[in-house]
Amino acid sequence: MAGWTGLPGKTGKAAVKPRIHASAWQSAGRCMFFDRSDLMRYNKKMTIQPDLPLLRLQLTFRADEDLKHLPEFRGAFWRSVFGCGLRRLSDPTRPLSEVWPTTVTTVSTGALQREDLYNTVFAPEDENDILPRHIKSPAPYVIDSPSGPRTIPAGGVETIGLTLIGDRVVASVPAILAAFASAAEHGLGSADKTGHRGRATLVSAEIAWRAPGDCRPVLLPTGEVAPVAAEVPPVPDCPSAVEITLATPLRLVRAGRLLGVRRLTAGDLIEALIRRVSILQRTLGFAPLAIDFRTLFALGHEARMREADLVFADQQRWSSHQGQEINMGGVLGSFRLPLVGLEPLWPFLWFGQFVHAGKGAAMGLGAVRLT
C-alpha cells in the first residue's frame, strides 16, 4: 500500500450536535453559513480548523483456499464484504456466539447495541437532523483498497486500509473486525457450481498512519483486540507546493455532468474536499466548522494544476440491489499544485488523504495521496 505521512495527535471532548435548519445550507450560493442563533444552539463550540477524530487501520487477509473471480475494483467488493458481516452480527434472532468469529476473542460492540451495528456503521441515518434533507448522512468509514488481481491463490494475502471516523464507531472496533473476519470465513469472490466460495482469514489488524513501518497491532495473536481511540491527525505546515495523486477514480459532478480529464480543475477537487470534510466534521466531529465557505471556495478555484498527467479510467461494479452493472469510472493520475497564497486550503487537502473525495468515497473512490 502507498506510504502515508503524519502521525495522530490528541483529541478533545465531543460537543453536543443539535439540529441546524436546512436554510443554513445555501445550495444556490454554494456556501454553508451559521447565523447568531446557530452559534447559540452550539453554545459557541465551533472550530475554524478541521479536527476530525480518526482511526486508520490496515487489515490483512490470508486466503485459505483459492479466491476466484475477484473484481479488479476492490473498494466496492470489500464494502460489500463488510456489510454482509455487519448484517450477520446485527441479527438479533441468532445467538451472538453463533455468528461471532472465534478468531476475534474480544466480544464487544462498544457503545452500540448489537442490533444497531449495521444501521449505525454501514448505513447511517441523520437521526438528529443535523444535515439538510437533501444531503445524505455520510458513512463513518472509508475503505482504501486499490485494484488487485482477479485471483488470489491459497496462501496469498490481501491488505486493505480502513479509516474509521468518530469516537462512537471507533469504540466498536472489535465488532468491526469481527464483521470482516466472519465474512471472510464464509467465503470471498464468486461461488463455484456447488455454491462454495473460497474462504479466508483475517490474520492481522494494525494502526497505520501511512508511515512505513509505523504500525501498532490491534488484533493480537490471541485474538484479543487491543484498546484503541480515535485521534486527530495534526496538520503540518503548509508546503509551497504538493504533488497530488488520484490513486483511485475520482468521480466529481458539476452542473449534473461527471467531470472528465478536460473539465476537471484543481478547484473542483478542493471544493469537494472542503464540502466532504465539513459534512464529516458536522456529523462525526467535535463541532462544526465556523468558516467563510464562499470565500474558501473562491480561493480554491484560484488553484491551478501544473504538470498534470491524468486519464479517465472506465470501470463497473455489480449492484445486487439494482440488478445491473453500475458505472464507477473516474479520473486517475497526478499533478503538482502550487500552494503559495492558498495556505487556508491546506488543512482540507491534508484531511482529504484520509477521507477521500467525490462519489463513492466510502468504498474507496477518490483516494488522494500527497507527496
Would you write up a description of this structure?
By secondary structure, this protein is an alpha+beta fold. The protein has 2 domains: 54-217, no CATH class; 234-370, 2-Layer Sandwich (Alpha-Beta Plaits), CATH 3.30.70. Helices cover 24% and strands 22% of the residues. The protein has 9 helices and 15 strands. The protein has helices spanning 36-41, 74-90, 96-99, 117-122, 167-170, 173-186, 266-284, 293-300, 346-355; strands spanning 25-26, 31-32, 54-63, 141-144, 157-165, 200-208, 215-217, 241-250, 253-254, 257-258, 306-313, 316-319, 324-327, 330-338, 368-370. The strands form 5 sheets. Strands 4-5-3-6-7 form a 5-stranded antiparallel β-sheet. It has a 4-stranded antiparallel β-sheet with strand order 11-14-8-15. A two-stranded antiparallel ribbon has the order 1-2. A hairpin with a 6-residue loop joins strand 6 and strand 7. Helix 2 (74-90) packs across helix 6 and helix 7 (266-284) packs antiparallel against helix 8 (293-300). It is globular. The two termini are 14 Å apart.
Indicate the topology.
Layout: E1 25-26, E2 31-32, H1 36-41, E3 54-63, H2 74-90, H3 96-99, H4 117-122, E4 141-144, E5 157-165, H5 167-170, H6 173-186, E6 200-208, E7 215-217, E8 241-250, E9 253-254, E10 257-258, H7 266-284, H8 293-300, E11 306-313, E12 316-319, E13 324-327, E14 330-338, H9 346-355, E15 368-370
Antiparallel strand pairs: 1-2, 3-5, 3-6, 4-5, 6-7, 8-14, 8-15, 9-10, 11-14, 12-13
